[in-house]
């Protein structure tokens, strides 16, 4: 970038980065479809493993759906920064005069729209397949909408920490899974409360709080982690 | 105060200081551990509900307490290393992780053994045991991340970021596991109720907690000394030190 | 002292196995945790001493050679 060019506002930088990453996601629809397909297939495995008894499946469905969503986010987050790291565009971002936290957050937002958001929208379908009672379907969708924000941000942190390591996939799950425990607990409890007729709102509020908190803290940590990965 | 902290950051000074400290800490730790264990095992009365199996508390609770405190020590060292780029903070963080992981594992194993006579099963998804298991994963993550990086300066910084995020998360994890447990289980089966613990049982427990803190400090210093000896093998101060003896 | 005999200490009203197993499984890693770094420190120290002797032995002949 020539030095006489004025600096762009952070909002413009965020938007540009968001669109750039969004376009690159559009060029490979398989990357968007894969996590959904993964979700779909693992959901199929549970009735096969546990038996087709509808009442038992319904009793376990909120936990199954949330655990599989967590695994799906684990799977996609491994590749979040990989291509940017390999083709050097991450280095460009780090050299640019804008905070890495903002540009990384733009990429993560685009990534979340293509994965977590879609998954949350489609989750009632899978809920119906597992016999989740109707009262829980909306809460499932909302809880995944809020929960995938946390899952994606934590996954992005794991990806940023391990992107420079060869065969970092297994390490990534070790780093991420313990941090995802509260999200899983709040999410499943919200759906369970909705099914049992309790009040899911307080659990959804907790999830929302977690989402907002991680939106504040995680980008800073991700920025620092990306710089470490680039230096190593 | 600042002069002392500044000196802590210098490897030659730290090496001498920690050598003196270790020489004092080793007998103190051994004595505290032995006295605490004998007190807890032989002198303290049995619990009126759990009988003698409760004596496992004298290692389970201290190990759990110090393991958790150890994570904060590690994360604090990580923060110091990130902000001020002090090498000694890296060494501290690196040395704390395996010690904390072992203490967490001890808390888990003793908790499982305690569970057998108390609940009739080796493994029960009790809130405290589950939290300890997650803490173990957090520790193992830091250890594994450090090993995965070839550049050890970058490894220390990556671990610092991870342990800081973990530190922010730990209270949330503990609280959420607590809620999760109380939602799914009746509160009747608990290790130690809210009820006040009698002083004849409490004093040996406090003594053992102190002993485990000393042990943590001792093993932390020993690991740091071993690390320093190796990484500074080419520096003049160490050569002089070896030559003098 | 709470217990009356050594056998009672060992038995602990049926809980002896669990209590002693827990204490044994704690003592072992604790001893290792102290002993392993001590061993490493000794090894490194000895290596450093050997290195110093080696470098002293390497510099001596050249010094004598220059004298001759």
Would you kindly provide a written description of the structure presented here, covering whatever features stand out?
The complex is a heterotrimer of chains A (232), B (245) and C (68). Chain A is 83% helix and 0% strand. Chain A is mainly α. In chain A, helix 3 (54-77) packs antiparallel against helix 8 (169-196). Chain A is elongated and about 65 Å long. Helix content of chain B is 81%, strand content 0%. In chain B, helix 3 (57-84) packs parallel to helix 7, helix 4 (87-119) packs parallel to helix 6 (152-184) and helix 4 runs antiparallel to helix 7 (199-231). The relative contact order of chain B is 0.16. Chain C has helices spanning 6-11, 16-67. Chain B binds chain C through residues 26, 33, 37, 41-46, 51-53, 55-56, 59-60, 63, 99, 102, 105-106, 109-110, 113-114, 116-117, 215, 218-219, 222-223, 225-226, 229-230, 233, 238-239, 242-243, 245, and chain C through 1-3, 9, 12-16, 18-19, 21-23, 25-26, 29-30, 33-34, 37-38, 40-41, 44-45, 47-49, 51-52.
Explain briefly what this protein structure is:
The complex is a heterotrimer of chains A (232), B (245) and C (68). By secondary structure, chain B is mainly α.
Keywords for this structure?
heterotrimer; B: 245 residues; mainly alpha; Four Helix Bundle (Hemerythrin (Met), subunit A); 8 helices; 81% helix; globular; C: 68 residues; 85% helix; rod-shaped
Radius of gyration of chain A: 19 Å
Q: pLDDT under 50 segments of chain A (min length 5)?
A: none
Secondary-structure content class of chain C = mainly alpha
Task: Using the alpha-carbon principal axes, give the shape of chain C.
Answer: rod-shaped
Topology:
The complex is a heterotrimer of chains A (about 230), B (about 240) and C (about 70).
Chain A: H1 10-26, H2 29-50, H3 54-77, H4 82-86, H5 89-95, H6 100-129, H7 134-162, H8 169-196, H9 201-231
Chain B: H1 2-8, H2 11-43, H3 57-84, H4 87-119, H5 127-148, H6 152-184, H7 199-231, H8 236-244
Helix pairs in contact in B: 2-7, 3-4, 3-6, 3-7, 4-5, 4-6, 4-7, 5-6
Chain C: H1 6-11, H2 16-67
């Amino acid at each position: 970038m020539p030095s006489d060019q004025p600096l762009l506002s952070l909002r413009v930088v965020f938007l540009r980065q968001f669109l750039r990453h969004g376009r690159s996601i559009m060029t490979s629809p398989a990357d968007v479809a894969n996590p959904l397909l993964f979700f779909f297939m693992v959901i199929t495995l549970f009735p096969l493993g546990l038996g087709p008894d509808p009442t038992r499946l319904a009793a376990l469905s909120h936990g199954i759906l949330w655990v599989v969503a967590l695994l799906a986010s684990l799977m996609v987050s491994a590749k979040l920064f990989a291509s940017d790291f390999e083709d050097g565009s991450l280095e460009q971002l780090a050299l640019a005069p804008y905070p890495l936290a903002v540009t990384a957050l733009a990429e993560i937002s685009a990534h979340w729209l293509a994965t977590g958001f879609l998954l949350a929208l489609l989750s009632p379908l899978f809920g119906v397949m597992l016999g989740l009672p109707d009262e829980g379907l909306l809460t499932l969708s909302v809880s995944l909408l809020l929960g995938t924000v946390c899952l994606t941000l934590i996954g992005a942190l794991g990806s940023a920490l391990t992107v420079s390591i060869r065969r970092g996939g297994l390490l990534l799950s070790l780093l991420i899974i313990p941090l995802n425990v509260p999200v899983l607990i709040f999410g499943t409890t919200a759906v369970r409360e909705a099914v049992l007729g309790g009040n899911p709102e307080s659990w959804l509020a907790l999830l929302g709080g977690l989402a907002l908190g991680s939106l504040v803290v995680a980008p800073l940590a991700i920025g620092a982690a990306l710089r470490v990965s680039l230096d190593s | 105060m600042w002069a002392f902290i500044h000196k802590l950051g210098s490897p030659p000074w730290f090496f001498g200081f920690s050598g003196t400290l270790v020489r004092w800490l080793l007998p103190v730790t051994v004595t505290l551990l032995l006295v605490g264990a004998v007190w807890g095992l032989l002198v303290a009365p049995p619990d009126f509900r759990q009988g003698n199996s409760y004596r496992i508390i004298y290692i389970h609770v201290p190990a759990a307490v110090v393991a958790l405190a150890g994570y904060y020590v590690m994360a604090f060292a990580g923060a110091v290393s990130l902000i001020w780029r002090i090498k000694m903070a890296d060494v501290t963080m690196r040395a704390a992780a395996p010690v904390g992981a072992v203490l967490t594992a001890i808390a888990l194993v003793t908790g499982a053994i305690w569970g057998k006579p108390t609940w009739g099963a080796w493994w029960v998804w009790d809130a405290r045991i589950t939290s300890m298991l997650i803490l173990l994963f957090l520790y193992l993550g830091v250890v594994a991340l450090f090993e995965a990086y070839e550049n050890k300066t970058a490894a220390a910084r990556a671990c610092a970021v991870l342990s800081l995020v973990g530190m922010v998360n730990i209270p949330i994890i503990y609280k959420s596991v607590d809620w999760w447990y109380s939602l799914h289980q009746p509160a009747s089966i608990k290790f130690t109720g809210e009820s006040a613990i009698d002083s004849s049982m409490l004093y040996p427990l406090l003594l053992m907690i102190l002993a485990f803190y000393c042990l943590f400090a001792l093993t932390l210093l020993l690991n740091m000394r071993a690390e320093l000896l190796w990484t500074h093998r080419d520096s003049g101060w160490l050569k002089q030190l070896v030559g003098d003896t | 002292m709470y217990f009356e005999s050594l056998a009672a200490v060992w038995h602990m009203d049926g809980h002896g196995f669990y209590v002693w197993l827990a204490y044994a499984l704690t003592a072992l890693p604790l001893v290792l945790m102290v002993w392993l770094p001590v061993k490493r420190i000794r090894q490194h120290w000895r290596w450093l001493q050997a290195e110093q002797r080696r470098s002293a032995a390497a510099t001596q002949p050249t010094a004598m050679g220059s004298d001759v």
